[in-house]
Write a structure and sequence with these properties.
Its EC number is 2.7.11.1. Residues 571-849 form the Protein kinase domain. This is Receptor-like serine/threonine-protein kinase. There is one protein chain. The chain is of the alpha+beta class and 881 residues long. The protein is built from 17 helices and 52 strands. It has an eight-stranded mixed β-sheet. β38 (576-579) and β39 (584-589) form a beta hairpin. The longest helix is centred in the middle third of the chain and has 46 residues, at 492-537. The chain is globular, with a radius of gyration of 38 Å.
């Protein structure tokens, strides 16, 4: 309670005033030096300043003594009854000498000086009850404050600011620079060691957090890695010395390219990499037995890539530190020894040096010399190897020929650098092998996850760099080799297959007589089975009558709706493998095990019986290796269904427009696809029973079989024509913008040259890996056709090529020739374009090619674009599909 005599004189201790300009008796808050200033200021008991009372005024002086006694006793009671404060706001800045403590008394935020400096002051976070001040985070690590004038504030916008020298105007030395708006921000130190800024009353949403800006320490719950949504990258940077927290020369960060892994660099030089995560650990790190302390996590998703760890027992105190020498250490506090115990240290040996043995070299720390070439390889520069310089690596003794290659298995190795790799987490090892074998520039494959027998697929598409042998860890990798080298290596995978092949031959000779008799019996059985199946798959005659008299011209089996329903698991959503203007496409399996693709007309589709009959009629009469095969149809119970052979590799656009999938299409595969499409169109235009104009040729309508052979599909818009018809008119223009020829899109005139134009667009898309529709370039506003034309006129057509396939497998002359032919196909005038017989000839021979003229639709006509219901763009007044 305030003394009454003081109240009468207006001397309330919470409302200090100056009474005279005579001699002053100064009261400073230093009366309370036995208590910390943080306790006083946290509860806002007094303002900054002094109590000035004239010495001559004894009554006032006595009153001030009363105030002092009252004030000190009040503060003492407040301090003894309160707990540590972990939060501050804009009215409660933190000065040098003040601290705040996390709620669980685990961490402290305040100012400190390293052991080697008495003047340099840093704002940091350290452990509360551990001697030695183990600092885990520093705000101004590269900009120390000279002297004790620092002040940490949080402003009304939610930004933390570290300022100093307020008596001389003040200067800012560090700020959180948060861009998120705030209404009532507060700063809080959490028990995790995370300093956060949040809205008052909202404990879950952080406007800013120190965990996003690590220094040399990774605490439990912190994320090391990249946020793909914001582009924000979290990584460790070493300190210069144990007693100097400023940034040192080493960094420890995730490289997100290919399949992510952690790279340690000294400056810009790569020193060490962990190898990719294999489900248990990074493949290049030592094997650790299961422990009761740590739970590790490595996440790769569309949103973020990060490594993190948690503690099973929250009472355990542990941290991961990148020390000043570039060594990663996992430290745990021991209460018994009152010191930090090194639980794990990544002490790097000679073989951990990045790319020590060069490409296709392997390092073994127990061999001499430590570097040797993989089997089937030899030193690229033998003289340098003799001088113990292995950096140029090794080269193959026998070149790969793609079709006859195989794989050699290596066990217990640190997987090579994954910067130029591709991965799929759901693929089996056998599927992974098949994908690598089909892509000529795939150099190796392995499982991503080694748990439970292995899963996932990791493919390499470049030289294999930084391989080392590990004694107690590592994993398996399968490296591509020429067939002759596989036999020479004595690889178990290959030799076992060779032995098995010999055994099969011997066994076949012994059993041939018996099998001949069995085959005769099977002939009769299969004939009976086929007749039975035909009876089951025939539809109801009354339903079939809906198809009209043309039913007899189909030459096509009619399936029963019940059989199709069983094959597709009752048209389950899990069986859907695609969708187009016609409707959904389901994967199915018939009773005899044959896989099928079921194309079902949806009720929302703009197509109807006419397009359905048109596709069935045309494709039923067409048979070619580059056309999709129609097995039958169903017109039962209001359903209209087409049954095709299943294409396991989906459509062409799934590969060429996807950055990861496009790596599976090397140049030989792309060249094979281009030629296959050309032969298929030539068959439609010239060699089929009906001369067909497809009218909707695009990458999405080119399906790929198991060996990446192209199959033209979707004949719903196809039209047949006689030899006397050079061109045809239509009032209803349908198709896909970006692939339609100018005369068809604008005037409704279509001919075989319309398909030629579409083919030219597809060739440029296959070569470049870019869509014509929506193509953009920083240097101009041209579409893909205009871009290719411009580079061709500048004498640089090879720059159109997709960067992902510019490797040893591509042939410059083939690439340039394909671009040249494509530009001939997309010329403005249909009469200038070659027919498909000439296109096939130009692609398959070295005949001299004419110079192309300016292409049609040279630039984007954005004023005429509109969105259609199937996410494709067409010209205004045209029917979208």
């Amino acid at each position: 309670m305030v003394p009454m005599t003081c109240k009468r004189r207006g001397l309330n201790p919470l409302n200090w005033i100056t009474l005279s300009n005579n001699y002053y008796f100064e009261w400073c808050i230093k009366l309370l030096t036995s208590w910390t200033r943080s306790s006083l200021r946290s509860f806002s008991l007094i303002p900054y300043g002094h109590c000035r009372i004239p010495i001559s005024n004894s009554s006032s002086m006595g009153c001030c003594w009363a105030h002092a006694l009252f004030f000190c006793s009040s503060v003492f009671l407040t301090i003894t009854q309160s707990t540590a404060v972990d939060t501050f706001n804009s009215s409660q800045p933190i000065a040098d000498g003040d601290t705040i403590v996390s709620a669980g008394d685990t961490f402290v935020l305040g100012f400190f000086s390293p052991r080697n400096s008495s003047t340099n002051r840093y704002l940091g976070i350290w452990y509360r009850n551990i001697p030695g001040q183990a600092v885990v985070w520093v705000a101004n690590r590269d900009n120390p404050i000279n002297g004790s004038t620092g002040l940490l504030t949080v402003n009304s916008q939610g930004n933390l600011a570290l300022v100093y020298n307020l008596n001389n105007g003040g200067s800012s030395i560090w700020s959180s620079n948060s861009s998120r708006p705030a209404r009532n921000p507060v700063a809080q130190l959490l028990d995790s060691g995370n300093l956060v800024v949040r809205e008052a009353g909202d404990d879950d949403n952080f406007l800013w957090q120190s965990f996003d800006y690590p220094c040399d320490t990774l605490l439990p719950g912190m994320k090391l890695g990249l946020d793909r949504r914001t582009g924000f990258d979290r990584y460790l940077t070493s300190s210069k010395a144990a007693d100097d927290p400023s940034s040192g020369g080493f960094t420890y960060r995730i490289d997100p390219r290919g399949y992510p892994e952690i790279i340690q660099r000294e400056g810009s030089t790569e020193r060490y990499r962990t190898g990719p995560w294999n489900g248990l650990r990074f493949s290049g790190t030592p094997y650790l037995r299961p422990n009761p302390i740590y739970m590790f996590q490595f996440v790769v998703s569309d949103q973020e890539i990060y490594y993190s760890y948690l503690l099973d027992n929250t009472s355990t105190v542990s941290r991961l530190v990148l020390n000043q020498n570039g060594v990663i250490q996992r430290l745990t506090w021991s209460g018994d020894t009152q010191g930090w115990v090194v639980y794990v240290t990544a002490q790097m040996d000679f073989c951990d040096r990045y790319a020590l043995c060069g490409a296709y070299g392997r390092c073994n720390i127990r061999s001499s010399p430590v570097c040797n070439c993989l089997r089937g390889f030899e030193p690229k520069v033998p003289n340098e190897w003799e001088l113990v310089n292995w950096s140029n690596g090794c080269v193959r003794q026998t070149a790969l020929n793609c079709s006859g290659d195989g794989f050699v298995k290596y066990s217990g190795v640190k997987l090579p650098e994954t910067r130029r790799s591709w991965f799929n987490v759901s693929m089996s090892l056998e599927e992974c092998r098949g994908n690598c074998l089909r892509s000529c520039n795939c150099t190796a494959y392995a499982n991503i996850d080694i748990r439970n027998g292995g899963s996932g697929c990791l493919l390499w598409f470049s030289e294999l760099i930084d391989i080392r042998e590990l004694e107690d860890s590592g994993q398996d990798i399968y490296i591509r080799m020429a067939a002759s080298e596989i036999e020479a290596t004595g690889n178990s995978e290959t030799n076992s297959k060779s032995r098995t092949r010999k055994q099969v031959i011997v066994l076949s000779v012994v059993l041939s007589t018996g099998l001949l008799l069995i085959c005769l019996a099977l002939v009769f059985f299969l004939r009976h089975l086929r007749q039975k199946r035909q009876r089951e798959t025939r539809g109801d005659p009354e339903d079939n009558a809906r198809f009209g008299a043309e039913k007899d011209d189909l030459e096509l089996p009619l399936f029963d709706i019940a059989a199709i329903s069983v094959a597709t698991n009752n048209f389950s959503l899990s069986n859907v493998v695609g969708e187009g203007g016609f409707g959904p496409v389901y994967k199915g399996v018939l009773k005899d095990g044959q896989e099928i693709a079921v194309k079902r007309l949806s009720k929302e589709s703009k197509q109807g019986l006419g397009e359905f009959k048109n596709e069935a009629k045309h494709i039923a009469k067409l048979q070619h290796r580059n056309l999709v095969k129609l097995l039958g149809c169903c017109i039962q119970e209001e359903e209209m269904i087409l049954v095709y052979e299943l294409m396991p590799n989906k459509s062409l656009d799934y590969f060429i427009f996807n950055e990861n999938q496009s790596m599976l299409l090397d140049w030989p595969t792309r060249y094979q696809i281009i030629n296959g499409i050309a032969r298929g169109i030539l068959y439609l235009h010239q060699d089929s029973r009906l001369r067909i104009i497809h009218r909707d040729l695009k990458a999405g309508n080119i399906l790929l079989d198991f060996e990446m052979n192209p199959k033209i599909s979707d004949f719903g818009l196809a039209r047949s024509f006689s030899e006397s018809d050079s061109k045809t008119n239509t009032r209803k223009v349908v198709g896909t913008y970006g692939y339609m020829s100018p005369e068809y899109a604008i005037d409704g005139i279509y001919s075989v040259k319309s398909d030629v134009f579409s083919f030219g667009v597809m060739v440029l898309e296959i070569v470049s890996g870019k869509r014509n529709r929506g193509f953009s370039h920083p240097d101009h506003q041209l579409n893909l056709l205009g871009h290719a034309w411009r580079l061709y006129k500048e004498g640089k057509p090879e720059e159109v090529m997709d960067e992902t396939v510019k490797d040893s497998s591509w042939v410059l002359s083939e690439v340039v020739r394909c671009i040249h032919v494509a530009l001939l196909c997309v010329q403005q005038g249909p009469e200038d374009r070659p027919n498909m017989s000439n296109v096939v000839l130009m692609l398959s021979s070295d005949i001299l090619l004419p110079e192309p003229t300016e292409p049609g639709f040279f630039t984007e006509r954005k004023v005429f674009e509109q969105e259609s219901s199937t996410n494709e763009i067409t010209i205004t007044l045209l029917t979208a599909r």
